[in-house]
Structure formats: C-alpha cells, structure tokens
Amino acid sequence: MDCLKGLNNKQIEAVTKTEGPVLVLAGAGSGKTRVLTHKIAYLIKEKKVRPSNILALTFTNKAATEMKDRIERLLDMDTRSLWAGTFHSICVRILRRDIERLGYNTNFVIFDSSDQKTVVNNCIKEMNLNPKHYEVKAMISFISNQKNQLISPDKYINDFYSDFRERQKGELYALYQKKLKSNNALDFDDLIIKTIELFSNNEDILSYYQEKFKYILVDEYQDTNGAQYELIRLLGQKNKNVCVVGDADQSIYGWRGADITNILEFEKEYPNTVLIKLEQNYRSTKNILAAANCVIENNLNRKKKDLWTEAEEGKSLCKYNAESEIEEAYFVTDRIQNISDIEGYDFNDFCILYRTNAQSRVLEEALIKRDIPYKIIGGLKFYDRKEIKDIVAYLRLIQNPLDNVSFRRIVNTPKRGIGLKTIEKVQNFCQITGERLYSAILDAEDIPGLSKGVATKLQNFSLLIGKFIAMKEIMGVKELIETIINDIGYIKELQEQQTLEAESRIENIKEFISVAVNYEQKNEEPSLEDFLASISLLSDVDKTDETMQNTVSLMTIHSAKGLEFPIVFMTGMEESVFPLSRAMFEEDELEEERRLCYVGITRAEKQLFLTHTDRRMLYGKSQYNSVSRFINEIPKDLIEEYMGNAAKMRKTKRENMQKKENKLFRGHIYKPQPLQPVNTVSNSTKLCVGTKVKHSSWGIGTVVQVKGEGEKTEVMVAFENKGVKKLMLSFAPIEII
C-alpha cells in the first residue's frame, strides 16, 4: 500500500490503528509528521473516510499547510474539504456558523493585541483604577491566563471576593468581556473559549460536530492548555477516535499555559487507549541520543521511552570549559571557522543555542569580528531590540542634543503623557523657528497651542535630559547608564507588566550594562562618544540579510524546537544559567528545564558541543557558577573535553595549586579545622534540602542537595548572586540560620 511505503513497523502500527483512542509518543526525530500525514491518507484511501469527516489540529499554520501538501502528494487528489488547521482557525469556522446562539453576530471581528490594549486601558479608566497598580499588559496577561484555564469573570470574582485587589481584577475582566461583546468582537483566546461555550450550551451543535468529525488527530499534544484539552474532549466524546501525537519529554511551554498532564493522563480520559512509542530516531548519532536519554531519565514526571538509531556511533560530545563568556564566544566561532574550512560544512549547518536572549550579545560580537554571517531565529539581534535602542537613544540625545530622531523616540518612553499631537505641535513650531526639538522644549511655554500642563511635562523632560548631560561630564559610562535606567523608571514600568516578555526585556537591559563594563575595562580613556561609536559599528556592520542562506543560526532553545542542524553548540551550560536559578527550588520547573536541555541535545545530527565558563558577566554582574547538572548527568565516556591553549594553561595552573596543597597536607604544615561558630553545622543530620545557611564569604544560601555521611558529607548550596557551590561539610564555614 502506498500509504505505508517507507514506514517502519511502529509507524505502520500508528498509521493503521484507526479505531478508538491512540496515544503516539513520538520521540525527537522519529517522524511524527510523517505518521500524521500517512494516517490521514490511509483513512481516506484505505478506510474510505471522507476528508470532511477528519479533523486535524496543529499549532501553526505552517504545520497545517505542510500537512495538507503532503497528503495531496500522497493521494494525488484535492483535499480542501479536510478540516486541517490551527485550533484557532478551526474555531473561527465553527463560530462563523453558529455564534448567534451566544448573542453575537456572525460577522464578529477578532481583536488583535493593539485592540486589546485599547479596550483594557478604557476599562481601567472607567473603573478609576490606578494604572500603575493595574498595568495594561499585566491585565491582558491575567485575562488570558484565566481564559486558558476556563475560569469565567464571575467565578474569579466569587473565588477571590474577600481579596479587594483580586476582586477588582475580576471585575475588570468582566468589564473587558462586556466591552468586547458590545463591539461584536472576540480576542484570540475567546475563539476557543466561545466554541466550548457554544458546545456546552447547545447540545444539537455539539452533536452535529461530534458526528461530523469521526476521526480527530492532534499534533504536539504535549503543548495543549486547559481550554484546548476541553475542546478535544468535547468533540471526541461520541466516537472516541482521537489520535494524539506528542512527546512529554519535549513539553517546554509550561510558562505560557501548556499542561503536561494532558498527555501524561490521556489514558485516564480514554481508558481503552492504545499506546504506541516511536523510538527510532532518524536524525542523530548514537552518542548524541545516548546523552539525551541519560539526561531525560532523571525526570520523574514522564512516560518512559528510549530513543535509538541505526546511524553511526558518531563523534563524542565535545565539552569546553572557558574562563569567561568572551573566551566561550571565541571558542565557538573558532570551531565554526575551523570545521567549515577543514570538513567543508556550510555556515548554515551550524547552530548556536542559549537559554536566554541576553546571552546572544557576546556571541554576536564574536561572529561579527570573525566575519562569520549569522541570523537570529525567533528574536531580534541584541542591539536591534526595542529596549536596547531606547537606552541607546537616551545616550545619543545626551551626547548630541541636536538629534531629533532620538528625541522623538524617547520623549514619551517610558510614558510621560506626551502624545503624538503634542510632538506635532512642537515640530510645527520648530519648522517656523528653525530650532531643534530639544532646544525648543527648554521654553515649552512659548510654543503655541500647548496647554500649561503639557508644557510643564515637556519642560520636566528637558530638565531630566539636562541633568544627564551634566552627569556625563563626571560619570563613567556604566554609572551613567545605570543612573538613566533608574531615574527614568524604565525597569520599574516593565516590572509592573508581570509578563515573561517584560522579564526578558529587563534581562537585556541589565546585559547592556555588561557591554559598558567590558568597554570601560578595555579602554584607558573611556568616553560616551567613543562608546556610542563602538555600539554603532557592532550594530550596523554586516546586518543579516534574511534572504541569505549560508548563515550561522543563533536562537534560544525554545526557538529551536522542531529544527535540526548537523552541528550544534549549547552555550552557557552552568548552574543558575541553565538551569535557571529559579528552577532549583521548584521540582516542576527543574524538570521543564531538563526537558528543554533534552530538546537542545536532540537538535544535533552529527556533532554536539557543550560549553560552560568559570566566570560569566551577565546582567551587569560577574557570576561564578558551577558546571550545569545536565552535563554531569551525561556519562563521561560520551564526552571528550576540548583542551585549547588557554584551557591547558588553566588546567596546569589548577594542577600545580593542587600539588602544593597536597604537599602542605602531607607535611602537616596546615591542618584545617571545622569552624565552630554559634549554630555551626556539626553533623549532617541537621541539614536537609531547603535548609537556610550562612557562609562567611558568600552570604545566605539554601541547601539544594546533601550527599554522603559524617565527615564525607557534601552539600550543594545555592547562594544569592553567587550561584550553586559544592562544599565539604567538615570544612565549610557555614552555619544554620
């Protein structure tokens, strides 16, 4: 049968098992998309199912389009009647037909994020809420979270009625929904919520779609949230022919609402589920897969499976211990250039992965200096990010008050109540007088058409810039940047948003301070003018042309899901960087970080490099972190440590120091004694995971691991701003607090 051609035995089983609930655990690189498309083709050709009776749900339009194209090639027929699309696009089709049952017109509009901001802002004003306490973006995120958990405004208000602030948020949520309906509008989350509401309140409509969709297939099931889960459950209640494909080990979107229990507990919802594991990998070498398996098996919250391959053993994983993030970046770029020159790989065969966007800056600079073309996937280049461009605009206006472009960018950033109409009036005045914008607002009361209040706001801004201009003469670049950030309240405004995007922006701003620190360390006579010139060269030279094919790819590991590259570099493999520090105290978060590591490892086809540093400048501070636990979870026989000249010198230095220490111990010149302050840890029974301790040098920390007994007891302690440290309890100057 053509529909089964080229499939392995497990894939054939997944394709031909058409009746009843089916859970396909598809490991990385195991051909899940192939299984889905062949299964639909098999249903149509062999089982004689009408395309219109099949529903295929995906998470991206690209995936849906690719699925349809493959099916048409397999069957050589038009499949336009097949319902294949994203959750949201499918729900729009359903709502266009029957949303009148919910009191809307069928010509409803879909509000985008900009429209949402306008509506929420109006709600805040109408309720006389303090916009500083009920920030627009934070409220949009709050409303979205409630919808994804199927929590209505009334339920939220009732649940938190005794909490004034939470009740106010619930009432704002209710007013927001009321305004949407008065505009005959739905937001993105409503598309699923209102479809569920339509089904729940109208048995005839639900029955129609249950009968229509005799077979339901869902891609990336591990990424579904509560609302998506409920939609699938309702549609599949009658026929139970629900086939979900996914991998719990690649569930990495918990922070945006994905619920891993949906896939882990699928068999509870559908008791007669057939479980099929796709474990043959067609992407990576045996060594890479062995490393991935060893890491992920440390997670408890998973369905066990082991990837295997018929591919070659392959090269060992390469680990490199750099002294700093700068040395790490140059190691990566040197290896890329070397492998490209010697082994003939193109630049587009290489991918550099990192945990957070802020880590890309040093890597980008090294690639630019090595003249290696690159592109950022799923994000902007560091110096092209809005928050960085905003801070640089402040610096440029301070350095050059004639800069109208920078003036316009920051005059209302952060928001100061200076709108576009006000700026237009100032510009019109300047066209008549020939003045520059900054010069004109020094005497804003002389500008026609401005109210006294608006003129005062402009003059306050001019005073702020004037103060920074004066400070420039007495402050270093780093100190000036920190002063600007604090005085304008940029980070404070982002913190009030309480979103992951805002957190990422804050991290990038702090990382920009690292740029200033490095600049001042390298220049004997640092100046703002020279600093801005160096920034311009880095940000403007060799801008990536999106049409260029032969470029190294840079991205966060989240952005890499679904992609693959012959050679992959996973950078920043240190405790507090990857895994993130906040994950060390929450088992669920730590397991998601480990799944993210698993995703990163399985992006590599031929060769994988793991790099970590002794010292890393990140967010403006030097961090001394130990090597990531994820590297330690990989068997040593799978890893080969790369020893460049710098690494060899450091290793020799460490070995010489160790020899001296050993000699001192043998000669009994010095015998360390455990410190005995009040509450000193005298035996390991007093310590357990979560115990708070104090170290004489590193300050307050939390015990995250205890190993061994008696004098051989080792503890791992996470110190604030110092990372995780391994200590011998008998020698460690720590006390319980």
Helical element count? 29
The percent range for helix content is 40-55%
Residue stretches low in confidence (pLDDT < 50, at least 5 long) are 539-547, 664-680
Rg for CA atoms: 29 Å
What is the global morphology? globular
Mean pLDDT: 86
Strand order of the largest sheet: 11-12-10-13-14-9-17
Q: Main β-sheet: number of strands, strand sense, barrel status?
A: 7 strands, parallel
What would you call the quaternary organization? single chain
Report how far apart the termini are: 70 Å
- Strand % is 5-15%
Structural class: alpha/beta
Could you give the count of β-strands?
Answer: 22
Task: Reconstruct the topology from this structure.
Layout: H1 9-16, E1 22-26, H2 32-45, E2 54-58, H3 61-75, E3 83-86, H4 87-98, E4 109-110, H5 113-126, H6 136-148, H7 153-159, H8 164-182, E5 185-186, H9 188-201, H10 203-212, E6 215-218, H11 226-236, E7 242-246, H12 261-264, H13 266-269, E8 274-278, H14 286-296, E9 317-322, H15 325-343, E10 350-354, H16 360-369, E11 374-376, H17 386-399, H18 404-410, H19 420-433, H20 437-441, H21 452-472, H22 477-488, H23 490-495, H24 500-522, H25 528-540, E12 552-556, H26 557-560, E13 565-570, H27 587-601, E14 604-613, E15 616-618, E16 621-623, H28 629-632, E17 639-641, H29 645-666, E18 692-695, E19 699-707, E20 714-719, E21 723-728, E22 734-736
Parallel strand pairs: 1-7, 1-8, 2-3, 2-6, 4-5, 6-7, 9-14, 9-17, 10-12, 10-13, 11-12, 13-14
Antiparallel strand pairs: 15-16, 18-19, 18-22, 19-20, 20-21
In short:
This protein is an alpha/beta fold and 737 residues long. Helix 17 (386-399) crosses helix 21 (452-472) and helix 22 packs antiparallel against helix 24. It is globular and about 80 Å long.
